[in-house]
Write a structure and sequence with these properties.
Helix content: 40-55%
Strand content: 15-25%
Keywords: Hydrolase
Distance between the termini: 170 Å
Order of helices and strands: HEEEHEEHEHEHEHEHEHHHHHHEEE
Shape: elongated
EC number: 3.1.11.6
Protein name: Exodeoxyribonuclease VII large subunit
Length: about 525
């Protein structure tokens, strides 16, 4: 190799300067901060108040924890949301456990919550009070929706723990007071799964049928012994409270001691202070019922005996007031009947005489002049109506002619002729109807006049009808009353075909001979019988 091989054409390039503080990208910085926060605060416990709770459709829960000076965003992933000790609610003070991380897209930090519990009993009670207010506004606490307990239950369902003193006390108390069938649905009564098991038990009892292999209970008892607020907190679950409110079977709540109060105490149909008190509330005392039935039976027998003795005494008292012989009861009534029947004949005669006098008075008021005046008045009205009708027709025709003359100047001849023909036809029709109505009206009035004349002729005493006679004295005056006659007085009997003299003898009238009975008509020989 020659020395010319190491020769360069032109000056050599200067080396690039080195930087001890290279720049970072935004993403590199964000993820570096994220790793630093997660490494430094991988497990933290925070206490604060929950606000701005947002349950996403994906199942994740986004919220904010705050105190009086600061706030931090939080997130609960879907897998951790179901295992929380308490469900997040705005205003609830909680203690959460999780890790601090960042959200690079917004350059903010947040806590990923893995567990959550209430910050003491005060926070739990505050949450319970808010839930009570909401359920009360929905009407779940109203007394009107509660179902009365059956007085004599045949089957009782008990929802409680199968071990412990509660179930033994309940069963012993029921067997002592009211031996009946008891169905126990075992559940846990403390912890996270307690509310779900109790709800399933209530729905299971509610779904039974009365005629099924396991009969449906007449009422349910939800029982648990005493404990702290945290121990009894499962009975403050909203889902359990709504299940109790929706049940068809009456439910007695017997959770804790008398001083313990849970949410299902407000929605159940009855609340018992203790489980033993629930058993007493659900069952009557069989011995007391037997004593009551026996006492009522004794009182009924005594009352029946007193009633019978009272009726017997009253019957004896009434019997003493009756006569010795039954015939004496009818004697007075028979006497009154005989007295009334003796006056019946004379009463009938007086009634006939009274009606005869009324007939004579009424007949005297009728005269041909009265009927003739009425007929003439009717004829006058008929003639006046005819005259008014003719004048009205003439006036109508005149008005029509005048209107025709007034309108003829404004109309063409053809419509005028048509309307004139129509009016003329209507006028002729009215005249034809009038010509037919007026003679018929006159004919009907004439018939009525003839009928009234015949009636006048029939009722005229001057011409007696066959079978009737007019009594006159010697001077020819009419005698209209029997009181006007005297014994030995000469009278005339005027018949329709002549006059016969007569004398009033004044003796008792002789009875008329009985009228011979009509002879039956001989029946045809060939006439058959219908029966």
């Amino acid at each position: 190799m020659s020395d010319d091989s190491y020769l360069f054409e032109g000056p050599a390039e200067a080396p690039a300067p080195r930087d001890n503080n290279p720049p970072l990208s935004i993403s590199e910085l964000s993820f570096a901060l994220k790793r630093t926060l997660e490494d430094r605060f991988g497990h933290v416990r925070l206490r604060g108040e929950v606000s701005k709770v947002n349950r996403h459709a994906s199942g994740h829960i986004y919220l904010t924890l705050k105190d009086d000076k600061s706030a931090i965003d939080g997130v609960v992933w879907k897998g951790s949301a179901r295992g929380l000790g308490v469900q997040p609610e705005a205003g609830l003070e909680v203690i959460v456990t999780g890790k601090i991380t960042s959200y690079p897209a917004r350059s903010s930090y947040q806590i990923v919550i893995e567990s959550m519990e209430a910050a003491g009993a005060g926070a739990l009670l505050a949450q319970l009070e808010r839930l009570k207010v909401r359920l009360r506004e929905e009407g779940l606490f109203e007394p009107g929706r509660k179902t009365p307990l059956p007085p004599f239950p045949a089957t009782i369902g008990v929802i409680t723990s199968p071990t412990g003193a509660v179930i033994r006390d309940v069963l012993h108390r029921i067997a002592e007071r009211w031996p009946c069938r008891v169905i126990v649905w075992p559940v846990v009564v403390q912890g996270e799964s307690a509310c779900g098991q109790v709800s399933n038990a209530i729905r299971g009892f509610d779904g039974m049928t009365p005629d099924g292999p396991i009969p449906r209970p007449d009422l349910l008892i939800v029982a648990r012994g005493g404990g702290s607020v945290e121990d009894l907190w499962c009975f403050n679950d909203e889902g359990l409270a709504r299940t109790v409110a929706a049940a068809c079977i009456p439910i007695i709540s017997a959770v804790g001691h008398e001083t313990d109060t849970t949410l299902i105490d407000f929605v159940s149909d009855r609340r018992a202070p203790t489980p033993t008190g629930a058993a007493e509330m659900a069952t009557p005392v069989l011995a007391d019922l037997r004593y009551t039935v026996a006492d009522m039976d004794r009182r009924m027998v005594q009352a029946g005996g007193r009633l019978i003795e009272d009726r017997r005494t009253r019957l004896r008292a009434v019997a003493r007031g009756l006569p010795a012989r039954p015939e004496d009861l009818l004697a007075l009534a028979q006497q009154r009947l005989d007295h009334v029947s003796s006056r019946l004949g004379s009463g009938l005669q007086r009634n006939v005489a009274l009606h005869e006098r009324h007939l004579a008075v009424t007949g005297g008021k009728l005269s041909p002049a009265l009927l003739r005046t009425r007929i003439e008045r009717g004829q006058d009205r008929l003639r006046g109506a005819g005259d008014r009708l003719g004048a009205a027709l003439q006036a109508g025709v005149a008005r029509g002619e005048r209107r025709l003359l007034q309108v003829s100047g404004r109309l063409s001849p053809e419509p005028l002729h048509r309307r004139l023909d129509q009016r003329q036809a209507r006028l002729e029709a009215v005249g034809a109807r009038l010509d037919g109505v007026l003679p018929r009206r006159l004919e009907r009035d004439a018939d009525r006049l003839a009928a009234l004349s015949r009636a006048l002729t029939t009722l005229d005493p001057g011409r007696p009808k066959p079978g009737f006679a007019r009594v006159e004295d010697s001077d020819g005056a009419w005698i209209t009353s029997a009181k006007a006659l005297e014994a030995g007085q000469a009278v005339r009997l005027v018949f329709g075909d002549g006059v016969q003299p007569a004398t009033i003898d004044g003796g008792d009238p002789r009875p008329f001979p009985p009228r011979p009975a009509a002879k039956p008509k001989p029946s045809a020989a060939d006439q058959g019988s219908l029966f």
